[in-house]
């Protein structure tokens, strides 16, 4: 699976990616200048550095202020002498605004510019304005109140919210309200000229793209234009007019249920500040109703800003969007809206799926354990027990194979044959096998040229005489009862389907450090809960070849172990499920194995597993969402697919968003999710440890479990994907054998295996296998 015989796939993929990258770069270089260009034509002084340079000619911290808070608009005006008079002029055109009077001259002094408040409000006219929307929840409620009362208003919208809630923004305009610019991100930092400009231009283009609406109106987040000369001047350069307010309800500071004091009305015209976004605006809605009622009682009328706007600053509601507008909206959605939406979806999907699947698996696992405890097995005479053939494929297992054989020799199953298949070992493995066979009549030894584990296993299966096949690895130690626990499922079956395979319980036998204890906990929780639950549901997708039993007829029907994948056990298990055989879990069929003791060894082992499982999943993708395969096709495999695809697609974004949030001090959601996952995993581990009466010291690993698991998973997923795309042949990784599995008695499970039984005459038969695939390239080995 995934092998590319031409060897050209990876280069083609890279070439395609390069072409796409060049095309995207070309498109961006073409559209970006258009998207960054200002939307309103302004005649003079359009260099982006001009506002800062001009302000540097005076004292920007102490700019003379003309006008007062009753004047709604703000602008920077140049002070010039024309025909003997002091006048205020527009820095961005040849227009003379007006002549200053003597009192204003005293205020101006020798400053080259002034901050001017201008415009007039009409008595008993109320201009209600809303900042920080549009909001999906509260803006529609505000609009409902305004519609019920027949009151128009002006909304100063945030660009990202416009893109995130386009239908709400369109409704605001459709119902006759006016809209202004409140920056892209509600920024309060005005230190970078390029960003300052794009906060305004980007929002303007987003409004044009979403609703064909162009607006000159602008309001600073948090207000206070008199002391923020740079953003006022930069917005003015781009063709925007700053709109202030004189009545601040401070509704944003009140919690739901609290009463927002309504500003006192004095008969004069006022611009009222309220908010339709940025938080829970329940209190705002009540204040709005009360304000409208009091204003009507005082004889006020209501309006958008239109009646008092200079003609040249009135919004254009029928603007035709251009490509730069749409590109800006898409970019905003991709950079600011989409990550938040995706992360929210992933957060709740993670919480929901983890809760649901964990609860389902725990309940099913408990049901499975209860059934096994209550089940009464049929007793038959030992002379009638079926012959079990144990297949042991080995390659360079000199340090461990004798202990493996000794554990098998201690089996309490009376009708047994053991077939060891040496896969062309280059060490003393074959000699050890032959020597052991001279002392144990149950053992037969086969040898073949190195061809790989699946071929070696099939070789042993073909020569097996038993109707039940048990498989294990060269470093695996069976407990005495394991073979018997396997066999009973075949001669005393239950259920409608014949049992095709039984998965055993693999335990880590070299628990000598955090890494091996971590693997031990993983094995315990994964087998005792996950696979037991899948057994009850008939959804086991992997029967580990290191500790498994198979019906020989089923193996023959499936064609034996396939050579298509590196996870030949998963491949075979799903094939049996396709053929209609039942696959079950037996926790009392225990095998102890040697786990990798180094990070490098663990990574190599898991890369083979992950890559092989991806191959198997791809090979059997036709089982997905197929009701005929029951819970395996409808739940287990789809969940496995999602657990693979979602991290592949979104893990980089997740890491980036987590880093950005942590850098910004927003750690609460991350901590909540991590804590939730920790609790769920702890519950599963407690249940698993209790099920099989394992050591409670495993729970000490729970707090650090994810610290190891998450980086390892990320590496394995992306490394496997790259290997699949490259299409190169990947062989078996054989971990280094250290013979570090403790005696079973030391592990507290059973007594140590006895010395092998000595036969009165050797019964070993050493065969030379002529595999049908012997001419294939030699595999690196088995393990």
Given helix and strand content, the structural type is alpha/beta
- In spatial order, strands of the major sheet run 18-21-19-20-17-14-15-16-22
Shape: elongated
| Count of distinct strands | 22
Q: Residue share in helices? A: 40-55%
How would you state the average pLDDT, rounded?
91
pLDDT < 50 stretches = 747-783
- What's the tally of helices? 21
Distance from N terminus to C terminus (CA atoms, Å) equals 20 Å
How is the biggest beta sheet arranged? Answer: 9 strands, mixed
Radius of gyration: 38 Å
β-strand percent reads 5-15%
Sequence-ordered SSE layout with sheet pairings:
Elements: H1 9-36, H2 50-55, E1 65-66, E2 73-82, E3 85-89, E4 96-99, H3 102-108, E5 113-118, E6 125-133, H4 138-149, E7 154-157, H5 159-164, H6 166-174, E8 178-181, H7 193-211, E9 217-218, H8 229-237, E10 241-243, E11 247-248, E12 270-275, H9 282-297, E13 301-302, H10 323-374, E14 388-394, H11 401-409, E15 416-423, H12 429-439, E16 443-448, H13 453-463, E17 468-472, E18 477-478, H14 482-491, E19 499-508, H15 514-537, E20 547-551, H16 552-558, H17 568-578, E21 582-593, H18 599-619, H19 630-663, H20 668-691, H21 702-726, E22 766-768
Parallel strand pairs: 1-5, 6-7, 6-12, 6-13, 7-8, 9-10, 11-12, 14-15, 14-17, 15-16, 16-22, 19-21
Antiparallel strand pairs: 2-3, 2-5, 2-10, 3-4, 17-20, 18-21, 19-20
């Amino acid at each position: 699976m995934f092998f590319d015989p031409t060897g050209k796939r990876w280069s083609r993929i890279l070439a395609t990616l390069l072409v796409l990258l060049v095309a995207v770069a070309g498109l961006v270089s073409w559209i970006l200048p258009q998207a960054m260009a200002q939307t309103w034509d302004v005649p003079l002084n359009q260099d982006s550095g001009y506002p800062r340079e001009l302000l540097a000619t005076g004292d920007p911290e102490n700019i003379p202020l003309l006008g007062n808070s009753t004047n709604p608009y703000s602008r920077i005006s140049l002070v010039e002498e024309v025909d003997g008079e002091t006048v205020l002029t527009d820095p961005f055109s040849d227009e003379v605004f007006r002549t200053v009077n003597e009192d204003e001259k005293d205020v101006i002094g020798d400053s080259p510019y002034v901050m001017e408040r201008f415009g007039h409000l009409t008595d008993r006219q109320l201009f209600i304005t809303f900042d920080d929307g549009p909001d999906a929840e509260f803006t529609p409620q505000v609009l409902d109140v305004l519609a019920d009362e027949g009151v128009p208003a002006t909304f100063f919208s945030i660009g990202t919210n416009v893109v995130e809630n386009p239908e709400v923004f369109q409704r605001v305009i459709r119902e006759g309200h006016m809209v202004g610019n409140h920056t892209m991100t509600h920024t309060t930092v005005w230190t970078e000229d390029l960003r300052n400009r794009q906060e305004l231009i980007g929002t303007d283009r987003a409004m044009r793209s979403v609703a064909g609406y162009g607006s000159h109106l602008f309001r600073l987040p948090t207000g206070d234009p008199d002391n923020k000369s740079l953003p006022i001047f930069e917005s003015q350069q781009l063709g925007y007019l700053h709109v202030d307010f004189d009545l601040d309800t401070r509704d944003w500071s009140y919690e739901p249920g609290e009463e927002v004091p309504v500003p006192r009305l004095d008969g004069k015209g006022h611009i009222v500040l309220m908010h339709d976004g940025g938080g829970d605006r329940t209190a705002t809605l009540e204040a709005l109703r009360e304000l409208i009622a009091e204003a009507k009682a005082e004889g006020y009328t209501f309006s958008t800003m239109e009646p008092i706007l200079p003609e040249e600053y009135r919004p254009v509601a029928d603007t035709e969007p251009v490509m730069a507008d749409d590109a800006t909206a898409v970019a905003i959605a991709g950079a600011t809206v989409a990550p938040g939406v995706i992360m929210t979806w992933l957060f709740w999907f993670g919480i929901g799926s983890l809760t649901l699947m964990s609860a389902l698996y725990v309940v099913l696992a408990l049901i499975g354990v209860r059934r096994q405890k209550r089940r009464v097995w049929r007793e038959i005479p030992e002379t009638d027990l079926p012959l079990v053939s144990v297949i042991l494929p080995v390659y360079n297992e000199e340090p461990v194979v004798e202990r493996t054989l000794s554990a098998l020799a201690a089996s309490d199953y009376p009708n047994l044959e053991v077939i060891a298949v040496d896969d062309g070992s280059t060490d003393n493995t074959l000699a050890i096998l032959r020597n052991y066979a001279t002392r144990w009549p149950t053992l037969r030894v086969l040898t073949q040229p190195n061809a790989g584990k699946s071929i070696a296993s099939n070789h042993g299966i073909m020569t097996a005489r038993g109707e039940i096949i048990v498989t294990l690895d060269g470093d695996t130690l069976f407990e005495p009862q394991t073979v018997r626990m396997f066999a009973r499922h075949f001669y005393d079956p239950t259920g409608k389907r014949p049992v095709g395979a039984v998965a055993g319980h693999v335990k880590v036998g070299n628990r000598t450090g955090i890494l091996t204890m971590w693997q031990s906990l993983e094995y315990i929780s994964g087998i005792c809960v996950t696979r037991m639950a899948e057994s009850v549901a008939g959804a086991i997708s992997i029967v580990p070849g290191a500790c498994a039993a198979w019906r020989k007829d089923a193996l023959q029907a499936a064609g034996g172990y396939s050579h298509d994948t590196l996870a030949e056990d998963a491949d075979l298990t799903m094939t049996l499920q396709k053929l209609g055989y039942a696959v079950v879990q037996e926790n009392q069929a225990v095998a102890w194995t040697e786990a990798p003791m180094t990070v490098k060894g663990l990574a190599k082992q898991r890369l083979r597993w992950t890559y092989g499982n991806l191959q198997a999943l791809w090979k059997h993708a036709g089982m997905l969402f197929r009701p005929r395969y029951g819970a395996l096709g409808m739940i287990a495999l789809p969940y496995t697919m999602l657990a693979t695809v979602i991290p592949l697609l979104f893990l980089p974004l997740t890491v980036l968003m987590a880093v950005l949030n942590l850098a910004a001090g927003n750690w609460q959601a991350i901590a909540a999710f991590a804590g939730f996952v920790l609790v769920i995993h702890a519950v599963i581990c407690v249940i698993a440890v209790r099920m099989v009466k394992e050591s409670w010291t495993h729970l000490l690993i729970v707090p650090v479990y994810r610290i190891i698991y998450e980086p390892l998973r990320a590496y394995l997923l992306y490394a496997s994907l790259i290997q699949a795309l490259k299409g190169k042949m990947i062989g078996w990784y054989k971990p280094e054998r250290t013979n570090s599995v403790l005696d079973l008695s030391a592990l507290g499970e059973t007594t140590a295996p006895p010395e092998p039984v000595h036969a009165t005459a050797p019964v070993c038969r050493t065969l030379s296998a002529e595999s049908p695939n012997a001419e294939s390239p030699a595999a690196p080995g088995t393990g």
